[in-house]
Amino acid sequence: MTINERYRGVLEYFAQAMPNPDTELVYRNPFEILVAVILSAQCTDARVNQVTPALFAAYPTAEAMAAATSDEILRYVKSVSYPNSKARHLQAMAVKLVDEFGGKVPDTMEQLTSLPGVGRKTANVILGVVHGKATIAVDTHVFRVANRMGLAHGKTPLEVEKTLTRHIPTELRYKAHHWLLLHGRYTCKALRPDCVNCRLTEFCQRYKKTT
Questions:
Q1: Of 22, 107, 139, 194, which is the active-site residue?
Q2: Pick the catalytic residue: 121, 155, 162, 194?
Q3: Are 150 and 204 in contact (CB under 8 A)?
Q4: Which of 37, 100, 133, 157 could form a disulfide with 127 if both were Cys (CB 3.0 to 4.6 A apart)?
């Protein structure tokens, strides 16, 4: 099977099985999704969704969060992973968002990654979700699934991102990020991939090597 055949089969399956994928993070505006994605690093979306209602009630805008201290923010996010550093990042991010961007979430990779707590993966999520740009954010799920299936063989998230971007049509890149993420979250799990119930085994290099 060629790499192009593998991509075609995988993308055709997802397009039929999951035509309108989206983030499972709950948000109402660009500021909220930016905060939620920062909190989601090495943490489940389910946990973040438990934390954010009270957090957003207390700090509904970048201006409100910028006026708080990191210790005050910590009280709301203490149940997520790495709460102390995330509280500091949120406070500093909000300050910079207000001071340099008028409280608006910027729309370029350079501007987004200048914000505390925002790396390339988070920036790509925001560029896709908020600004509708053709980006592929490579988190641990996307990285794992892409390497296992043979869609990309990269040692770093950036290597995987470049390979996926090269092979996935522009109009499908936003969806493809969610397709691979959700497949990794619920089927192609880190410790116990559910190959028995997976409908992509015919395209998966790892499955063929282990069966």
A1: 139
A2: 121
A3: yes
A4: 133
Catalytic residue list contains 139: yes
Whole-angstrom Cα distance, residue 110 to residue 107? 9
State the residue for tokens 């006026």. Answer: 67
Please name the fold of domain 3-21+136-210. Endonuclease Iii, domain 2 (1.10.1670)
The tens digit of pLDDT for each residue in 31-76 reads 999 999 999 988 999 999 999 999 999 999 999 999 999 999 999 9
Here the tokens at position 142 are: 């996307």
172 φ, ψ (degrees, to nearest 5): -110, -5
Return the CATH class of domain 30-129.
mainly alpha
3-state SS class at 32: helix
Domain layout of the chain by residue ranges: 3-21+136-210, 30-129
Percent of the chain's residues with pLDDT above 70: 100
